[in-house]
Amino acid sequence: MDNPAAATRFPIPALCRGDRELLDGWINGVRTGSLRICLTLIIVGLALYGATVGLWRGWEMAAYVAIKLPAAILLTLLVNGLLNGMLGLVLGSGIGFRQSLQFLLAGFAIMALILGALSPVTFFLALNTPPADHADARDWHALTLLTHTLAIAIAGILSHRKLLGFLREFALSRLAGVQTFFAWLAGNLFVGAQITWILRPFFGTPGLEVQFLRPHPLEGNFYDTVLNAALHLLGF
Amino acid sequence: MTTDPPNIPGIPPNQPETSGFEAMEGGTTLSNVLHRLLKKPLSLIHHFEHGEQRNSLTGKLVLIAAICLLVFGLVVGSFSAGTQLWAAPLKIVGGLLFSALICLPSLYIFTCLGGLNAKFRTVAGLLCCMIALAALLLVGFAPVVWLFSASSNSIGFMGFLLTALWLLCVGFGLTLVRRAGKALGMKGSGHLVIWCAVFLLVTLQMPTTLRPIIGKSDRILNLGEKRFFLQYWGEQLTTPHRPIRTAEEDLD
Of the candidates B81, B216, B61, which has an alpha carbon nearest to the alpha carbon of residue B130? Predict the structure, then answer.
């Protein structure tokens, strides 16, 4: 890295590049402030993006999603924190509890940076989307849903590719790094899906009320719903 | 001609499966045993074979397993709450320790059949390590189970989730048994595969024997009504359960 002091003050470019020196400092606890930096990036980036997700249903919904999107990521990390640390150790990567949290925060910070950077585009999209009481509102809702799913998928893939690269380098062996990465990914996807399901609505289906949480958010689960929907489609 | 050892989950490549089979430094304190269990579990087996204070190590491993299973059982019991808050932890701890106890003689015989020349106490220690590691990993999954127990009302889904998590955690334990067998000089692993199948069968049947663990019932135990676990699961899955919400709310 050309200027370590600059990376400490403004770590975004170094983080996006996957700068080895910056990450070494964070993972080994030499460079302080990593938790503050990553949390700030996650909260700000995802709040900005989240606001544009809910904006087509009005400013109230935008504010709700701006709170819920970063909350979903942080709750997923909280629920899986212990497990991720254990998996890092038993899979032989040599990555412990604090380091696993640091890795995942760095990965999600990159994802938040990508989504935050895309938020002006999605803001423009929201401004051009007809209101929920429009005749074609359902079509626009579907389009909004698909656009955001695509944006989140792209950000997720890019950030996780970076995370995989970090893990390969830092783990005791490349294979252990890859195994740890996929174990974390599976755990985070599994829990993340349920947490976002509890925190719904995010997109705000036309015809349904704008709310922070749906009534009885803890009734039912994501996988049960998917299974029931599949059975319904198959005629069972 | 030499060939590289196959890559096995939990073992870094380019290292023999038996790496870490070395003297345990730091004594048998609870924190050191926990640390070793996650990072270098084969050093615990080495201690059982060659070290001192083996009874202390066995006690620590059983304690770790019991505490972890109690915590996990409490989270499982929170699904139905009421009497299950104390019944489920006790059933899970008792059921798993009983399963381990009845499978210990067969583990010893099958490892001997595989060519292992180890003391019985080493094999018993190996089983303790396996159970403690699986229990420790289950505690790691406890927040995940709590999340679903708080938000799901489907017994079928919870049963499936808990079974999948158990198979995942015990998979790490069984990998440890195989690695330890190799480290102790076992020639083939075919006999261990049979034992692993037997152990899994026992631990899958045990929750059905001790049912209900996740559901509610008037009786704490239902020992009079004998069922095979596959038959019981089939009955549970065919019980109708429909969501309360509309499809629109689900795609929100």
Answer: B61
pLDDT tens-digit readout, B179-198: 999 888 888 788 889 999 99
Question: How many whole angstroms separate alpha carbon A125 and alpha carbon A53?
Answer: 9
Cis peptide before B212 (omega within 30 of 0): yes
Is B32 in a helix, a strand, or coil? Answer: helix
What type of residue is A204? G
Interface contact flag, A79 B157, Cβ < 8 Å: no
Q: Which of A56, A167, A202, A221 to mutate to test the interface with B (most CBs of B within 10 A)?
A: A221
CA distance A201 to chain B (A): 5
Q: Which of B136, B144, B244 sits opposite A79 (nearest CB)?
A: B144
B212: nearest Cα among B53, B63, B95, B116: B95
User: What is the DSSP-derived secondary structure letter of residue A29?
Assistant: T
Of A213, A215, A231, which is closest to residue A223 (Cα–Cα)? A231
Interatomic CA distance for residues A168 and B7, integer angstroms: 16
Q: Is the ipTM of this complex over 0.95?
A: no
